[in-house]
Structure formats: C-alpha cells, structure tokens
Design a protein that fits this description.
Radius of gyration: 16 Å
Strand order of the largest sheet: 2-1-3-4-8-7
Order of helices and strands: EHEHHEHHEEHHEEEH
Keywords: Glutamine amidotransferase, Lyase, Stress response
Pfam family, one: DJ-1_PfpI
Number of helices: 8
Strand content: 5-15%
Protein name: Type 1 glutamine amidotransferase domain-containing protein
Number of domains: 1
Shape: globular
Helix content: 25-40%
Family: Belongs to the peptidase C56 family. HSP31-like subfamily.
Largest sheet: 6 strands, mixed
Oligomer: single chain
InterPro entries: Class_I_gatase-like, DJ-1/PfpI, Prot/Nucl_acid_deglycase
Number of strands: 8
Length: about 220
C-alpha cells in the first residue's frame, strides 16, 4: 500500500494577531480521494500534535465530513513530529495550503530534509496553493534546490492581492518561487490549474486540490 505524508503548518497567529493556520479543505479533499484509491496517509507538522485552523474554515461540509471521520480526525489532531518520521516509509509528500504555511514550513529544515529524501528515493513531492511555500528550501541529493529549473505553480500574486493579504504575508509566494529558480506559471484567479513536472506536482489554488490528488494517484499507480 503506498503511503503519503501530509506536511501541515503549526503556525496560527503572527505578531499582529492575524490568524491563519491550515486550510483544512485542501487537506480533506485529497485525503478522501487518496484513501479511496488505497493510499495510506500520515500527518506531520513542525510542532506535532494539534494542527491550527480558523473557525471559519471548519464550516465547509467536506471539512465537517473529514473531521467526523475517526481515522482522519485522530491523525489530523495528533500530527507527528519530524523526529517521529522516516522518509523511506513514504512514496510522496504533500503540502496543503493555508497562510500559516508561509510562516513556518519554508524555514523548517527537518521537514524539508524529509521531503528531499523522499524525492531522492524516487518519490513524489506535491503542493497546493500556499503549500508551495513549503517547497522553497527543499534540496535534492546533489545539494541543489528542488525548484530550480522546475515548472511549478502556487497561489499567485494577483490572488493574494485580490483577498487583501498581500500586505500581511511575510512574502509573496509567486515571487519567492521565481526567485528559487522555478518556471512559475498561473492562470486566472480561482481557476483550477495543476502543473506536473516529473515527480513534482503543484496546484495554484484551492480549486486545484482534487486534480493534484488525481495526478498523484496516476504516478503512484505506475
């Protein structure tokens, strides 16, 4: 049975009290699709344990179904510490979004190292929306950045500006991806868009989470 590691944020409030956390819908949709296709899932976060979420993000019916699922809820609220995870146990790692990701996962060397090992072992690295921030400092076995020269996407600057968070985030994701050498592309705001470049799969925004999961399953089933 293939195994996928979901890498989640532990960040909730910044120094100004702005709440962010994990966007659970981008966890729930891929989770159910992957489980339906016989894939086992674990959760990891920088601090382990409970994953922070905004109350507003819990209102979606798909999220409510996710949190009513015994296995999903147990794993989500008891995420593993990086020290409890062995990269060789997983066939892929997936970074869901939520603004919290841009605050902690780009700087978490332990999770970036696990992701780099998974990729170097022939596994898949995936991200959706702000989850692509978690890819910024992943390195391959030769020490080069995973994103350098890769086709990728993530939450666009236009989308960030449209919701008024461009002045709240520590950096604009589209700009950061380009600075790491990624061949960044995107389409109109809020439209489904997924880029597959070998064993790297990225989705632009929340509308792209299911397609990302479908592309991941295609690779894992090969």
């Amino acid at each position: 049975m293939p195994k996928v590691l979901f890498a989640l944020t532990s960040h909730f409030k910044d120094e100004h009290g702005w709440e962010s956390g994990c966007y659970v819908l981008e966890v729930a949709v891929p989770y159910f699709y992957l489980v339906k296709n016989g894939i086992e899932i674990d959760f990891i976060s920088p601090k382990g344990g409970t994953v922070p979420v905004k109350k507003l993000d819990l209102d979606d019916p798909k999220v409510q179904s996710f949190l009513k699922d015994t296995d999903a809820k147990e794993k989500f609220y008891n995420s593993k510490l990086p020290s409890e995870v062995q990269a060789e146990d997983y066939d892929a790692i997936y970074y869901p979004g939520g603004h919290g990701v841009v605050f902690d996962l780009p700087h978490n060397e332990e999770i970036a190292s696990i992701a780099g090992q998974i990729y170097s072992n022939g596994g898949v690295v995936c991200a959706v929306c702000h989850g692509s921030a978690g890819l910024l400092n992943i390195k391959k076995s030769d020490g080069s950045f995973l994103l350098d020269g890769k086709n990728a996407t993530g939450f666009s600057n236009c989308e960030e500006e449209a919701i008024g968070t461009d002045t709240k985030v520590p950096f604009l994701l589209e700009t950061a991806l380009k600075e790491k050498g990624a061949n960044y592309s995107c389409i109109a705001n809020w439209q489904e868009y997924v880029v597959v470049d070998g064993r790297l799969i990225t989705g632009q925004n929340p509308a792209s989470d299911l397609k990302m999961a479908k592309e991941l399953v295609k690779i894992l089933q090969k």
